[in-house]
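To fix ideas, we give here one paired sequence and structure record:
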Amino acid sequence: MLEEIVIVNAARTAMGRFQGQLSSLTAAKLGLAVCKSVTHAESLSRIVDHVVLGQGLQAGHGQNPARQIAMQAGIDSSAVAYSLNQVCSSGLLAVIQASQCIALRDSEVAIAGGTESMSNAPFLLNRSTIQPEALGELRLMDSLMQDGLTCAINGEKMGMTAERIAKAYQISRGEQDAYALLSSQRLKASALAGQSAQEIVPVHYLANGKVQIADKDQLIDSNVDEQSLSALLPAFTAHGTVTAGNSSGINDGAAAVLLMSAKRAAQEGIEPMARVLAWSSVGYLPEMMGMSPVPAISQLLQRARMTIQDIDQFEINEAFAVQVLAIMRDLGLDPDKVNPHGGALAMGHPIGASGARILVTLLHSMKMKDESLGIAAVCAGGGQSTAILVERLS
């Protein structure tokens, strides 16, 4: 019989603008902040036996960032720590893998999540192409584009997959812009209601030689309205409908949860936030990667023997407005139940962290709204998706 899995804490950093307030911090530093937060610094770090963290852009960050973070967080050296990469699904896949470890009794207490500093993605030079005796220029590779924003299967920019969805589902530019505006409005309303503050762990950073605190999403102050969105040019094709305004941004941030076996949580006298009921991970067409949450959510519900109507809230990562609109159409979702606090269109999409970020938002939202069941799902470049079903306990 599998061990029951519970989530006892969940936190995220504020989402920073590209080359913005968090750009002086490495992905490891961002990940360290949330890992310390979910373990309440030293009080629970002593019992952590697994650390699983996603990161999409690992080049130049040193060996195994998860291990770096574990050691800096005061976790015992006997704990297992590893980093994984499934692009945008990385953070949620980390939670699933940690859940599997607990279910199979390979772990009792695990930190899982994701971290990303897209601002610090390096430029690369292929060593095998260097000819010291040759004259001329050397061409650098942008790891942000190469490893983060371009499909390695077909060479397309991620935005082209969104354009394909817009055409297939006949979703207009106006509909996409309207959803992007709604996401922004929801995020601002959520911040005013105190939802965002429940999720965010403040992070210290240096600016102009002074220590500052990042405790709110940096893009929340952006002046997003119907006019500013409609003025933007298509970003990927001359006559396209996908723009910078109805696409997620390039950002920095981290998110994590602390998982335990229900038995261990009881032994520690901890009241869990939620129970992990089921998960799914699927492959899909690379050229339609944004639609991959449809089979992931369908498989998840089938495994849990539930229906769409049983679920109180869905957090679906907003890689592009068009993809969320098409997913809602395919699954017959109530728009009011999907991303009610805004999403990546409004706050940003640090790719390795976003899967964990949507789960953190979901958990705190369910508590605030007194809801029982929620699903978090995220698409990933190359045609992948992960999804998880949680039940609120407290």
Observations:
- The chain has a mean pLDDT of 96.
- The first helix runs from residue 27 to 38.
- Residues 79 and 196 are 31 Å apart (CA to CA).
